[in-house]
Amino acid sequence: MRLLITGAGGAAAISVWKSLAAEHELHMADMDPLASGLYLVPEAQRLIIPRGDDPRLLDVLYDACKARRIELLLPTVDAELFPVAMARDRFESIGVTLPISPAECLRICRDKQLLLDAVQGKVPVPGNEPLTQEAADRVDSFPRFVKPRLGAGSRGIAKIERREDFDTQPKDGSVMLQEYLPGEEFSVDVYVRRDGVVIGAVPRERMKVDSGIAIASRTVNVPEVIQAAIRTAEIIGIRGVANVQFKRAADGVFKLLEVNPRFPGTLPLTAAAGVDIPKLMVDEAMGRPMPDKLLPFKELMVVRYWTERYFDAREWEALCRRQ
Ligand SMILES: Nc1ncnc2c1ncn2[C@@H]1O[C@H](COP(=O)(O)OP(=O)(O)O)[C@@H](O)[C@H]1O
Ligand SMILES: [Mg+2]
C-alpha cells in the first residue's frame, strides 16, 4: 500500500515508519526540510507541506495524493486533523482512505470541557468547573489544578497550592479549575474499528519524559483503566487510533484527563507488546480480516535512545527549494 504520513519530524510518524516501512511504500511529509523522518524514505517519497493552519495545506496534500496515487493519508499533527477531516469527501473521491476520527469527535477532543461534558456520568472525571473569580474565591482546600480548555503539550497547566496562585490565572472561562489528581498516570493507546468496535486498548505508563516524548515507559494491564478508555472512545465516537489519558485521584479512582485523537509517539512499545496499531490500520484499509474482540497484550518496558541518519546535504537543499 502507498501511504502519505505527515509530521515526519515527530515521534508518531517515525513510529508508524518503524511498523510499516518494510512492507509498504511510505511517503513522508513535513513543513520543515530538517524533519528527520523525511530522510528515512527515498527522495521521490518526500514532501514539504504548509503549516497545519495554512489554507493551502489541503490543496497541497490533495495534489500530492493524486499525483503519487496515495491510498492512505495519515495526518499525525494536531493542527492538521480538523481541516483534513472536514475535507474527507475530497480525499475519498480519489480513493484515499483517511483513518482519522470524524470532525465532530475531533472538535470534542480539542476542547477538554466539551470532552468531560460528553462523558460525564459514564466515565470517571475529575471535579471540574470553569475558573472565574467567584469560583476561585469559593475554593476552601488546596491543592487544586488548572489547565486551559484548549491546551496541549502541558502549556498553561499549574498546580494551585494557595489562593495567591490564582492571581496570575485568566478568569474568563478559558481555564478549567479541577480537583488535583495526585496518583499514577496512564496513556491508553486505543484502536477502534470502522464499525465502532474497540479492538485495542493498551495502557502505558510514561516513566520518564524528555521534551514531551516518553523515553522510558511500560505497558501495564489495569482493567479499570482499559474499560474507562474503551467507554470514552465509544461515547465520543473515536475511529482508528487515539490516546486516552487518565490519572488516579486521591480516592483511588482513575479519572479522565484528555483524549488525543491521533497517533502517539510511543507506539513501538504498544506494537512490541502485541498490538501493532499501524498494521491494524493498514489491514483495515486494505479490507483484510480484522480481530473481532479486544486484543491481548503483554506487560513490557522500554527505554529509548537517539539514532543517526547520514545523507548528502544536497538532499536537504533540494527540499528547501520545494518549500
Ligand atoms: N486534574 C489534574 N490533577 C493533577 N494533574 C493534572 C490534572 N490534569 C492534568 N494534569 C497533569 O497535566 C498534564 C497535562 O494535562 P493534559 O490534560 O494531559 O493536557 P495536555 O497534555 O493537552 O496539555 C497531565 O499529563 C497531568 O500530568
Ligand atoms: Mg496530555
Describe this structure in words.
The chain has 323 residues and is an alpha+beta fold. It folds into three domains: 2-100 and 308-321, 3-Layer(aba) Sandwich (Rossmann fold); 106-111 and 182-303, ATP-grasp fold, B domain (D-amino Acid Aminotransferase, Chain A, domain 1, 2-Layer Sandwich); 127-179, Dna Ligase, domain 1 (2-Layer Sandwich), CATH 3.30.1490. Helix 1 links the parallel strand 1 (2-5) and strand 2 (25-30). The mean pLDDT is 96. 29% of the residues lie in helices and 24% in strands. It has a six-stranded antiparallel beta sheet. Strands 3-2-1-4 form a four-stranded parallel beta sheet, covered by helices on one side. The radius of gyration is 20 Å and the shape is globular. Helix 5 (103-110) packs across helix 6 (112-119). Bound molecules: adenosine-5'-diphosphate (ADP) and magnesium ion. Magnesium ion (MG) binds next to strand 13. Adenosine-5'-diphosphate binds at residues 126, 145, 147, 151-154, 157, 178-181, 185, 245, 247, 257-258.
